[in-house]
TrEMBL record:
Region spans: Disordered: 1-39, 127-249
Name assigned to this protein: R3H domain-containing protein
Biased composition range(s): Basic and acidic residues: 127-139, 161-183
PROSITE patterns linked: R3H
Top-rank lineage group of the source organism: Eukaryota
GO-annotated molecular function: nucleic acid binding
Domain spans labelled R3H: 45-108
Length: 249
């Protein structure tokens, strides 16, 4: 088995060996890359030293509360943030990446407010006097809104009218099913026509008519007036509207 594997490997073509020229070229490229890396390291180290000096000068200057750097790359901004953090300063980056993004420093005793940071993030310059005016206007608007809300609250009714007049109307509510509708009649106004309908029988009508005759006869002052009363009663009986209505019915 080993002999077979050895014969197979021996029959395979060996990879071509690099010539002296190619080996020299590879070594030159590697050396150039190392030089570039060393140059980049020296450049960053020099930049760090430069930032340390500028930040140190900023700290010593009692007239400056904040310091704005020129736009720089992300790697350089990271170095500035590191140096500022070691020096005990507050630092933020603002602007658009790869365009105009920069670093701004503040001394600890003059740390920026949220409104100031928001202004820089919007690309605006921070004006303390303008900020005070805006804060005062905001406070006035809030007070005005509170006063308006209190006024509206006073104008609103204390409660439902049913609660207010509960002692008069009671707790029961009337539904549509409980309500009784009265149909208007043109001849009798808004009184239901069923309430005016004569529901007596003919016998009851005749009995009531006779009773009225006897009553009118009995109250006469004398026989003559009584006779006249009877005559008049007969006339009224013949033309009694209730009798005619009942008879017709």
């Amino acid at each position: 088995m080993a002999d077979l594997l050895g014969s197979i490997l021996g029959s395979m073509e060996k990879p071509p060996s690099l010539g002296d020229e190619e080996r020299k070229k590879a070594r030159a490229q590697k050396k150039m890359l190392e030089k570039q890396q060393e140059a980049e390291k020296r450049k960053l180290a020099q930049f760090r030293e430069k930032m340390q000096k500028r930040i140190h000068e900023f700290i010593k200057d009692g007239n400056q509360q904040k310091f704005k750097f020129e736009p720089m790359t992300k790697v350089l901004r990271a170095i500035v943030h590191e140096v500022a953090d070691v020096a005990g300063l507050t630092s933020f980056s603002f602007g658009h990446e790869e365009e105009d993004r920069y670093v701004m420093l503040w001394k600890k005793e003059f740390a920026p407010t949220d409104e100031e940071l928001l202004a820089y993030r919007r690309g605006e310059e921070w004006d303390p006097e303008k900020a005070k005016e805006m804060a005062r206007q905001k406070e006035e608007d809030e007070l005005s809104a509170d006063a308006s809300a209190a006024q509206r609250k006073k104008m609103l009714p204390a409660g439902n009218y049913r609660d207010k007049y509960r002692h008069l109307i009671g707790d029961d509510t009337v539904s549509k099913d409980d309500a009784k509708e009265t149909v208007a009649n043109r001849s009798y106004g808004f009184v239901s026509a069923d309430n005016k309908r004569d529901r007596r029988t003919i016998e009851q009508v005749l009995a009531d008519t006779r009773a009225k005759k006897r009553q009118r006869t009995d109250v006469g002052p004398d026989s003559q007036s009584g006779g006249a009363g009877c005559s008049q009663t007969n006339t009224d009986t013949e033309h009694d509207p209730q009798t005619e209505v009942s008879s017709t019915t």
